[in-house]
Each structure stands twice: as structure tokens, then as C-alpha cells.
């Protein structure tokens, strides 16, 4: 899962952020989407008498809510286009296609959509096109699968439009972003040291504070940090909370204790998990020691430490960690 | 050249709800904008510039939403700016809008902030696991709960003070027609009996997740003449600090203390507790009321905050009523929550807060914070034009 970048000693790892967002459409786009579901394209007439597709929610001149809906044809004319030689995931077609601005018959402003043609030689400004309707329509812009050239002598309306009854009030928009998370050289040092069972921080040459994980530059005074400091795997719980609440994407089953642990010799605490003690017995000032996973499970991650557990020593004096609260 | 006087003459907000499925995102903004413009007796046409604020884009999954919102909010042909400072953004956005007037650049500025939390899940958005790191993050509550514990320890506060705040704010919300939570039965006892979510924070001590928006119209001195009751801006301050500096005080952050000191100086206030008539303070978790009371200088920093709360001084009719609107604990459209504090403070000094009006309020504080207690925005508004 984790691997080295071209830059030596720098770690990176993929991250996917994905969520199915729910959009409430409001009355105007809801009407447009209901139309698509029912096989008609609805435009909106603005105060200047222009028919715009999709209808704008508010008039561009008077700013009043748009209420004048106009059905336009599902045939139209290409007013501009661009070629997509290598489609990527999530685009309307999985083969090369054109993105085209199409002014539908009866409309005054163009709609952007995909145009299914074999090559750029098959598209030109002025080309007559028609909607290719999706067989299963749900009230979404993808109900228009794409546009296709209109054969000479043929007309549009390839589907039997239904009378619009149920308005569309919401749509689901899945969004997925794929990132490559790149750790800084200093973080990479920290994580690669963890793969050898060591905890390595850095000391700020200016203020002398020891940061773990190291930060590249001191967050307090901006001085670049270079001096490496190996720290023991023992420390003190400064403060903590007991997480009882389950939530989407959670990777530890609640209840669990999320605690700030100040390693001996460090000047800043970091968050980790406390186990091997009932949650209600965890205390501020409690002395703890890292519990490492079996060596064969280690990687370049803080998760090599399964959790922290009480050492059994007396609690640290409040004064020794007061400035960390 | 000195700052030009500026005043709030329009305040508008939506009805805040868990899900506003009846409106689109632009429709939500327009609901607040149209109310603010009606209050100011202005039209969108007459506005010079628009400043938008909202919290992280991951909350609705729309990158740079101000671009797609521009048409609907009437920004075509006008300057449109977006401000982004996490949870404090509603406050910072109002301050940026005010500064455009105070600098003499524009005379009539519309500012709007919003969140449509129902389109996503903020808890998820704030807890996306980062490679190599320990996946112990648990949303905003998980972030702030350890620092609340630190406050309780440092100030030796009795553990029921958080519940006093929650019960008070929920009761105040009953007087605010726009508030999200309307729970007439909330008492200190019921709060204490609610589930412990992020120990020491209980369910009833946390803010809800709301859809909502807030808009303000901020104008120059000559334009303020059109209003019978402008809220004059006496001081505005923003401060930030590093999230992860060693020994950073997360209970009473340096940036918060510095911002408050600068604010009181700017507004000519020497004793905040005596000179401020009411405060709208950003309290997403109940314990932040006593914490910020101390940080803002309304009380001493050794437990003066919880003593003030416990004494009843922050209730309606108390010495310093706090969050008469019900606060963030009763309505939390994150991006708008800060602007709601600023707008509610303005309503109070305009005598326009309706059922939750503090009698004779002449000077009020609006406050917001964000990130890991690292961004602060605050203003003082007054019924009288500032003397200097």
C-alpha cells in the first residue's frame, strides 16, 4: 500500500475521498429534471424573452424567481465543440467523443453535453443533432445519454413524452477524488523510523522545543528543524476524550479513548489510543507505554503502535504537564 | 486616512432546519439575502459588491461554490469575493464586507454565509483518515472534548456548568422563530441525563447539524441615513495562530486573547462586562461559553467564566445575556453560524430582535472561532455612531 516516490526517503500513499452527496434541486431545476425523466426538455423564459436551457433559477436581470417554463425541441444545432480523444472515468461516453454546445430548437442559449461521433471530422459548427434519450430515465442530466447527428430528413422526439406529474426534488451526486498523499521529508523520517521500532522527532534550533512528529519548520518561530531526537515510547496522558459516538468512515469501534500523549522528552503531545484499562479509569497525568504490534505487521505508520497502555507508575504531577493543557 | 463609519442596516436569515429539502443551495442563500435586502429597503441592483462565506467545500462537495452561485445571488457585473476561515468564516466574511465600506471602496455591500449540511455529513468530512496517521479523529466533538476536559481541570469547574449553558440556550431558542432546535422540555437535568458522546461532552451539549444562511447589508454613513435603526460598527478584529505549536494554549488561545484586547481598545471599551449589554458568542459545545467568557475578558481567567455562567449572569435578564437567539447550540449551519452571531448582535442594538430582545441593548458583541481554535473573528456593534 505504501511506497516510495521518485524522491528518495519521501513516503506517499493513495487517498480516496468519496461521498454520495444529496442535492435538493429547488423548484426550477426540479422541473427541468422531471422533464428529462419524462422525455421533454424544459427551458425557462427570462424577463428579456430569451429561452435558456437548463432554466436559471433566478432571472439574470430582475433576479426574481423564474416561473415561465417553455418546452423546447430535442433537436438542435452545434454552436461550438471540442474533441475528447481520451475519455476519463465518469465522462458521458467511454470512447472518444465531442463536448458540444447545442442550441436546441426553440431555445436562445446553448446546452453543454456530449456528442457521439466517430472522429473530429464528423462534427462541425452548424451540425444538426438530436438527443439520444436513455432508456431508463430517473430525473438526471444523464437521462440525455448524449447528442447524435440528426440524419437528413429525420426529426427528433425519439421517445414518447409523458405528462410530467411528480416533481423531482433531489438527486444523488456521487463524488470521488483520488489523491496521492505525499509526506514531507521530516514526516517520512518519522514514519520510516517507526518501521524500525523507533520514535524520532526534531528539535527546533531556535526555541529548543522537541516536535514529534517533526514538522520541517518550527510552528512557533518558523525556523527550519534538522536535529533529530530519538524519544522513548513512554509518556503521560495530558488530556483525552472517550469517543462513544459511531460515525461514517470510523475505523475504530467505539467506545474508545482518544488521548493526547506527551512522550518523555517531547514538547508537544500527539493523539493516540488508550487500551488495556476501562475507559472510565483513564486519567489526566496517567503514565503510559506504547504497545507495539507484532513486528511482522509493521509498516511506515504510527499504527505500528497498536495503542498505549498504563505503565502502573504513579500519575505524573499536574505541574509537569499543565502547560500542555 | 481614518476608517469611514459603517453600519448594518439589513439582517436576514433562513429558517434553519436539519434538512431544507424544499430549496436548492442558491435558493437557500436567496431566502436570507431577500430578507436582508427587504430589511435594508434596497434591491440587489443597488448593491455594489457581494462577499460570500462558507465552511470547507467538502461539506457540500462543491468546489468554489461562489462561482456557480454568482448568477443567483445577483453578482453578475459586481465584485464577488469568497472568504474562508473554517467555522469562524461567517464572522470573517462580515468583517471583510465591513472593511470594503470602512475603506471607502464601496458604499453598499451585501454579505452572505451559508451551509447546507444535509447534502453531506460534516462528521465524515472532518474525519477523513490521513495516511500513516492514527485514525482516532472523531469530528469536531472529538477534537474539542479533550480541551474541554483541560478547561474543567484548570478552572476546577463543577461538571454541571456545561448543562446550564445548554439548557439556557435551548430555552432562548424558543423565542427565536428562525432557530433549528425547539425543545421546550430541555432542563439542566435533562441535559445531564443525555448520552455522553465524546466524554466529557454530552449529546445535549453539542450543536445540531443545520441547513441555513444569513445575510447582512453593510453601508456607509450617508447610506445609513435611510435606516431608522442602523447598527454602527465600533470595532472589528480577526486573529489566527499556528495549530500545532508546542505548548499552545487550546483552552485560552493567544490569538483569542489578543483579538479581544484589540477589539475592546478599538471600540473604546475598558470594562467589557460593564459596557457590553449582550453577547452572541460562538458556542458549538456548551463548555465554550465559560471558556470564551474568560478569554474575551468578561471574567477572570481562573474560572471566572463558569462562575459567571453558574450565577445566571448569562441568562436573559442577567448581567451579560449570552446567545439570546439560542446560539450555535440551537442552530448550526456551520458557514453561517458566525454571521448569525454578528447579525444577532446587530439586531439587538437595533432593537429588532423580537421576542429575544434584551431591553435597551446599546452595545453588543458578535464572536466566531474556527479550525482547531485557531481563527478568531469578532465585532462590537452599537446603537450610536462611534465617537472617533
Would you kindly provide a brief summary of this structure?
Chain A has 2 domains: 26-168, no CATH class; 184-324, no CATH class.
What are the salient characteristics of this protein?
heterodimer; A: about 325 residues; mainly beta; 2 domains; 5-stranded antiparallel sheet; 3 helices; 19 strands; about 10% helix; disordered N terminus; B: about 400 residues; alpha/beta; Peroxisomal Thiolase, Chain A, domain 1; 9-stranded mixed sheet; two-stranded antiparallel ribbon; 14 helices; about 35% helix; about 20% strand
Tell me what you see in this structure.
The complex is a heterodimer of chains A (325) and B (388). By secondary structure, chain A is mainly beta. Chain A has two domains: 143 residues, no CATH class; 141 residues, no CATH class. Chain A has three helices and 19 strands. In chain A, a hairpin with a 6-residue loop joins strand 16 and strand 17. Chain B is an alpha/beta fold and 388 residues long. Chain B has a domain of 129 residues: Peroxisomal Thiolase, Chain A, domain 1 (3-Layer(aba) Sandwich). Chain B is 34% helix and 19% strand. Chain B contains 14 helices and eleven strands. In chain B, the strands form two sheets. In chain B, strands 3-2-4-7-1-8-11-10-9 form a nine-stranded mixed beta sheet. A two-stranded antiparallel sheet of chain B has the order 5-6. In chain B, helix 2 links the parallel strand 2 and strand 3. The model of chain B has no long low-confidence stretch (mean pLDDT 96). The interface between A and B is large, with 75 and 65 residues. Strand 15 of chain A pairs antiparallel with strand 5 of chain B.
Task: Give the arrangement of secondary structure elements.
The complex is a heterodimer of chains A (about 325) and B (about 400).
Chain A: E1 3-4, E2 11-24, H1 26-37, E3 41-45, E4 51-52, E5 69-72, E6 75-84, E7 97-104, E8 111-115, E9 128-133, E10 144-149, E11 170-182, H2 185-194, E12 199-203, E13 210-211, E14 227-231, E15 234-243, E16 256-263, E17 270-274, E18 287-292, E19 305-310, H3 318-321
Antiparallel strand pairs in A: 1-2, 2-11, 3-4, 3-5, 6-7, 6-9, 7-8, 9-10, 12-13, 12-14, 15-16, 15-18, 16-17, 18-19
Chain B: E1 6-13, H1 25-40, E2 49-54, H2 65-69, E3 80-83, H3 89-102, E4 108-116, H4 122-125, H5 139-155, H6 161-173, H7 188-193, E5 196-199, E6 201-202, E7 211-220, H8 221-224, E8 231-240, H9 254-266, H10 272-275, E9 278-280, H11 288-295, H12 304-310, H13 327-330, H14 334-349, E10 363-370, E11 375-382
Amino acid at each position: 500500500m505504501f511506497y516510495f516516490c521518485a524522491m528518495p526517503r519521501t513516503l506517499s500513499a493513495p487517498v480516496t475521498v468519496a461521498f454520495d452527496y444529496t442535492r435538493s434541486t429547488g423548484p426550477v431545476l426540479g422541473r427541468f429534471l422531471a422533464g428529462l425523466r419524462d422525455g421533454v426538455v424544459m427551458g425557462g423564459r427570462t424577463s428579456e424573452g430569451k429561452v435558456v436551457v437548463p432554466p436559471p433559477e433566478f432571472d439574470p436581470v430582475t433576479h426574481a424567481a423564474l416561473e415561465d417554463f417553455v418546452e423546447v425541441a430535442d433537436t438542435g444545432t452545434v454552436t461550438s465543440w471540442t474533441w475528447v480523444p481520451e475519455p476519463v472515468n465518469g465522462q458521458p461516453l467511454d470512447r472518444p467523443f465531442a463536448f458540444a454546445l447545442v442550441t436546441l430548437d426553440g431555445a436562445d442559449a446553448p446546452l453543454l453535453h456530449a456528442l457521439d461521433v466517430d472522429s473530429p471530422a464528423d462534427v462541425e459548427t452548424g451540425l444538426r443533432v438530436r438527443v439520444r434519450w436513455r432508456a431508463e430515465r430517473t430525473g438526471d442530466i444523464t437521462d440525455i445519454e448524449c447528442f447524435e447527428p440528426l440524419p437528413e430528413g429525420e426529426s427528433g422526439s425519439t421517445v414518447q413524452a409523458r405528462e410530467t406529474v411528480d416533481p423531482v426534488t433531489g438527486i444523488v451526486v456521487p463524488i470521488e477524488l483520488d489523491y496521492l498523499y505525499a509526506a514531507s521529508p521530516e514526516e517520512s523520517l518519522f514514519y520510516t523510523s517507526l518501521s524500525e521500532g523507533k520514535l524520532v522527532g526534531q528539535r527546533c534550533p531556535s526555541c529548543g522545543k522537541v516536535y514529534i512528529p517533526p514538522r520541517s519548520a518550527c510552528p512557533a518561530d518558523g525556523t527550519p528543524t534538522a536535529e533529530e531526537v530519538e524519544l522513548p515510547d513512554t509518556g503521560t496522558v495530558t488530556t483525552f476524550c472517550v469517543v462513544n459516538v459511531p460515525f461514517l468512515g470510523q475505523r475504530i469501534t467505539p467506545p474508545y479513548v482518544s488521548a493526547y500523549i506527551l512522550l518523555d522528552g517531547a514538547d508537544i503531545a500527539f493523539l493516540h489510543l488508550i487500551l488495556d484499562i476501562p475507559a472510565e479509569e483513564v486519567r489526566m497525568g496517567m503514565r503510559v507505554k506504547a504497545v507495539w504490534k507484532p513486528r511482522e505487521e509493521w509498516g511506515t505508520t504510527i499504527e505500528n503502535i497498536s495503542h498505549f497502555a498504563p505503565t502502573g507508575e504513579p500519575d505524573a504531577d499536574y505541574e509537569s504537564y499543565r502547560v500542555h493543557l | 486616512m481614518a476608517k469611514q463609519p459603517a453600519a448594518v442596516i439589513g439582517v436576514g436569515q433562513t429558517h434553519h432546519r436539519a434538512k431544507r429539502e424544499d430549496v436548492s443551495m442558491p435558493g437557500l442563500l436567496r431566502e436570507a439575502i431577500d430578507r436582508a435586502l427587504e430589511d435594508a429597503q434596497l434591491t440587489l441592483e443597488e448593491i455594489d459588491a457581494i462577499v460570500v462565506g462558507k465552511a470547507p467545500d467538502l461539506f457540500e462537495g462543491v468546489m468554489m461554490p461562489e462561482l456557480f452561485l454568482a448568477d443567483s445571488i445577483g453578482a453578475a457585473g459586481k465584485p464577488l469575493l469568497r472568504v474562508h476561515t473554517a467555522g469562524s468564516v461567517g464572522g470573517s466574511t462580515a468583517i471583510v464586507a465591513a472593511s470594503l465600506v470602512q475603506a471607502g471602496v464601496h458604499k453598499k455591500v451585501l454579505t452572505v454565509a451559508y451551509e447546507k449540511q444535509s447534502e453531506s455529513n460534516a462528521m465524515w468530512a472532518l474525519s477523513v483518515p490521513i495516511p500513516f496517521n492514527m485514525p482516532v479523529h472523531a469530528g469536531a466533538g472529538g477534537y474539542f472534548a479533550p480541551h474541554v476536559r483541560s478547561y474543567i481541570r484548570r478552572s476546577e469547574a463543577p461538571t454541571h456548568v456545561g448543562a446550564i449553558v445548554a439548557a439556557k440556550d435551548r430555552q432562548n431558542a424558543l423565542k427565536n422563530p428562525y432557530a433549528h432546535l425547539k425543545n421546550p422540555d430541555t432542563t439542566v437535568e435533562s441535559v445531564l441525563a443525555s448520552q455522553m458522546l465524546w466524554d466529557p461532552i454530552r449529546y445535549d451539549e453539542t450543536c445540531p447539524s443545520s441547513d441555513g444562511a444569513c445575510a447582512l447589508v453593510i453601508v456607509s454613513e450617508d447610506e445609513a441615513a435611510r435606516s431608522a435603526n442602523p447598527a454602527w460598527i465600533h470595532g472589528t478584529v480577526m486573529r489566527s495562530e499556528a495549530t500545532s505549536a508546542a505548548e499552545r494554549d487550546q483552552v485560552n488561545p493567544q490569538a483569542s486573547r489578543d483579538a479581544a484586547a484589540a477589539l475592546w481598545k478599538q471600540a473604546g471599551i475598558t470594562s467589557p462586562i460593564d459596557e457590553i449589554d449582550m453577547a452572541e458568542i460562538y458556542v458549538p459545545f456548551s463548555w465554550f461559553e465559560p471558556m470564551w467568557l474568560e478569554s474575551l475578558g468578561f471574567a477572570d481567567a481562573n474560572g471566572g467564566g463558569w462562575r459567571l455562567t453558574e450565577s445566571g449572569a448569562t441568562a436573559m435578564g442577567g448581567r451579560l445575556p449570552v446567545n439570546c437567539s439560542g446560539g450555535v447550540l440551537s442552530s448550526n449551519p456551520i458557514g453561517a453560524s458566525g454571521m448569525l452571531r454578528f447579525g444577532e448582535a446587530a439586531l439587538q442594538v437595533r432593537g429588532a430582535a423580537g421576542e429575544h430582545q434584551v431591553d435597551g441593548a446599546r452595545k453588543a458583541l458578535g464572536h466566531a472561532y474556527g479550525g482547531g481554535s485557531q481563527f478568531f473573528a469578532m465585532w462590537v456593534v452599537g446603537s450610536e455612531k462611534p465617537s472617533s
